[in-house]
């Protein structure tokens, strides 16, 4: 008899909401998630699930099926953001709970991600005898800032564990609450960051001719970078570039010595990203030279990997979730220019990352992620738990596509090429 994941997940809705609120009230920043790790580890052990706390990495849990078979990895990220949370959501209505930690907030839904996967773990463990293979639970630290995924993947490599597939969910404030967005191909962008300090020569504002004003230099660079995207990148290639920080000067009549600017560039085609990065460096250095400034690149990391869902597993996930939650619940996703660490799993195993809609205007749940008014529609979290469980069961039965090949690079080289700085504690 088929397992009714939807009915059983709905019955655990209160548990899922309670877990989410516990996590939301006590958020922890990247690499500081000690209490969060302890909560996850204890919850899994209480279900009879074997666990491993990976130093710097997070928590792994094993649900061994009643029959041998493949291994599917289910992943949730667990860290929070340095944001002071507001008590009201995007519509001005009171949130059901807010952070009790000053200056720290779960503003990207990781509390929801974790609660959904913990609830799914309880469901899967209850039905483990009917599973063909192993469900590997992965609760990842440091997704927002410190990329502790390295330690998770290193631990799996050392143990000789190579999952056959992977599934994950991210909440979306842009799509109707309770809907699932699943599609093959590009879903989230790759990115690189640039931090540039322009060195000029300061002086009195009355004699700019005796100074080298780095602000003038930055103004020229900013305009050139905007034009560079239009002149050198096909209009059919998604690519954005933005500067989010400019720091220079202290007073209106004092010309500064330096100007610091920081920004990001995002793309879906990594070859396009690499080519644009080279052009960016060329433009910055040559305009700086033309203005008699010197450009110091304090950061220019290698472009990260975009997120591309495997077509075969995306088809399976969509079919499973339509049957589980209804035809109208599942739709194709609009690609998002945000980034995630999930593409690094996809370099080693095929799989799917999907969005679970959270937008509910009647409840005021409209604010974007990474904002102080961000909120979740808790009433639909059970759907994410059901999707995790149902997709895990289906993926265990599905062989890898014959034409799928993992990235051949060793793990350290893979991370270096992705532009990540290794977290403290690297072997």
TrEMBL record:
InterPro entries, sorted: Amidohydrolase, Bact_exopeptidase_dim_dom, Peptidase_M20, Peptidase_M20_dimer
- Peptidase M20 dimerisation domain location is 190-291
Q: Which Pfam families match?
A: M20_dimer, Peptidase_M20
Tell me the Gene3D superfamilies matching this sequence.
Answer: 3.30.70.360, Zn peptidases (3.40.630.10)
The UniProt record gives the binding positions of Mn(2+) as: 108, 110, 144, 170, 370
Q: Which UniProt keywords apply?
A: Hydrolase, Manganese, Metal-binding
- Tell whether Hydrolase is among the UniProt keywords: yes
A molecular function (GO) term: hydrolase activity
**CC cofactor:** Mn(2+)
Cofactor binding, note field: The Mn(2+) ion enhances activity.
Q: Could you tell me what this protein is called?
A: Amidohydrolase
Q: Which organism is it from?
A: Holdemania massiliensis
């Amino acid at each position: 008899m088929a397992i009714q994941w939807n009915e059983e997940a709905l019955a655990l809705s209160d548990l899922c909401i309670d877990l989410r609120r516990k996590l939301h009230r006590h958020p922890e920043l990247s690499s500081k998630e000690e209490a969060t790790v302890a909560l996850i580890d204890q919850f899994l052990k209480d279900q009879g699930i074997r666990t491993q706390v990976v130093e710097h990495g997070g928590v792994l849990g094993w649900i061994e099926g009643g029959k041998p078979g493949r291994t599917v990895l289910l992943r949730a990220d667990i860290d929070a953001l340095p944001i002071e949370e507001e008590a009201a959501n995007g519509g001005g209505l009171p949130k059901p709970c807010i952070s009790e930690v000053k200056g720290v907030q779960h503003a990207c839904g990781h509390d929801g991600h974790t609660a959904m996967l913990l609830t799914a773990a309880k469901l899967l463990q209850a039905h483990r005898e009917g599973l063909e293979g192993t469900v590997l639970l992965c609760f990842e630290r440091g997704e927002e800032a410190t990329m502790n995924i390295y330690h998770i993947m290193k631990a799996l490599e050392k143990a000789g564990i190579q999952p056959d597939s992977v599934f994950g969910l991210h909440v979306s404030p842009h799509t109707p609450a309770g809907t699932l967005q699943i599609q093959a191909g590009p879903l989230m962008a790759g990115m690189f960051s640039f931090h540039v300090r322009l060195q000029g020569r300061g002086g009195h504002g009355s004699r700019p001719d005796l100074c080298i004003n780095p602000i003038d230099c930055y103004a020229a660079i900013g305009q050139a970078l905007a034009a560079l995207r239009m002149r050198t990148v096909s209009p059919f290639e998604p690519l954005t570039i933005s500067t989010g920080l400019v720091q220079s000067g202290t007073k209106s009549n004092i010309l500064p010595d330096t100007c610091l600017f920081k920004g990001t560039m995002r793309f879906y085609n990594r070859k396009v990203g690499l080519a644009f990065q080279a052009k960016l460096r060329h433009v910055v250095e040559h305009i700086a030279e033309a203005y008699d400034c010197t450009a110091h690149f304090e950061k220019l990391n290698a472009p990260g990997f975009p997120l591309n869902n495997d077509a075969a597993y995306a088809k399976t996930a969509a079919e499973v979730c339509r049957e589980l939650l209804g035809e109208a619940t599942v739709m194709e996703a609009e690609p998002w220019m945000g980034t995630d660490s999930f593409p690094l799993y996809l370099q080693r195993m095929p799989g799917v990352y999907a969005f679970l809609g959270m937008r509910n205007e009647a409840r005021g749940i409209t604010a974007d992620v990474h904002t102080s008014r961000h909120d979740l529609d808790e009433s639909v979290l059970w759907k994410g738990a059901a999707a995790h469980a149902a997709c895990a069961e289906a993926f265990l039965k599905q062989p890898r596509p014959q034409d799928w090949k993992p990235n051949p690079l060793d793990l350290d080289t893979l991370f270096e090429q992705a532009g990540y700085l290794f977290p403290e504690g690297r072997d």
